[in-house]
Amino acid sequence: MRPQSLDELLAALEQWPHALLLGGGTDLGLRASKDRETFPAVIALEAVRELQAITTPPGALELGGAVTYSQALPHIDRHFPFFGALVRRIGSRQIRNLGTIAGNLATASPIGDTIPCLIALDASVKLVSATGERVMPVESFITGYRKTALREGEVIAAIRIPLLQEGVEFACYKLSKRFDQDISTVIAAFRLDCRGGRVNELRAAYGGMAPRAMRAANVEAALRGRPWNAASLAEIDAALARDFTPISDHRGGAVYRLRAASNLIRRLQLETTLDLPMRVEAL
Prior knowledge:
Blueprint: H1 6-15, E1 20-22, H2 28-33, E2 42-44, E3 54-55, E4 60-64, H3 69-79, H4 81-87, H5 93-98, H6 101-107, H7 114-120, E5 124-129, E6 132-137, H8 138-141, E7 142-144, E8 147-148, E9 155-162, E10 168-175, E11 186-195, E12 198-207, E13 214-215, H9 217-223, H10 236-243, H11 254-273
Parallel strand pairs: 1-2
Antiparallel strand pairs: 3-4, 4-9, 5-6, 5-9, 7-8, 10-11, 11-12, 12-13
């Protein structure tokens, strides 16, 4: 089915409550082509007008559920340049022309590239069904390994990302064996609010460190109120080890993941305190 409007989509979901929702198909397509799965019903979302909207309500960027990476990229670039740089590393241009951020969120992969960014930015997701709508933080929407809070008959209508307040910085980093077109080993995303050289608030979210993308609560607590300098990071490895017990697989060992994840905080501290703004990749 290929509904053209949100009303048509919700009607299709009432008729086929167990149908698979097809965004760009960059994940779902592999289940058909590689794993030879068959699906009882599929509802394509790319023609639903309401899900294609990109708006800027006061203090936020809102991306409809069918907005592709390529469509979202100019807007993400404008407000979150680091996030935009990460999006450019997701697949090829053809993949980005099809894949959607809402689809990346709905698959709930622990190494989904955009999910740690959305969590660190305190984004929320609007879910719509025939009975109404509800809004929840992305952090709560992901409930486990490839599990979400999406109910039967619901669809992701939009993702709302709060814009950064003055003085607040955002950075994200992706570690993979290849720089481009590769699955992540570790993803880290940070929203940092420093006042007078001290950490007022740090939201630190990671992918590739647990069965789902999640925040590093002990790291955040360890740095809250501390001077934002290298000395304050002396115990950050231990704090991170209390937050995560990563697995070892062909992309990286557990020890590597922990060390890399803590070093990305050190990298953030270095890059945000240099006299001239600079990414380490430029050195």
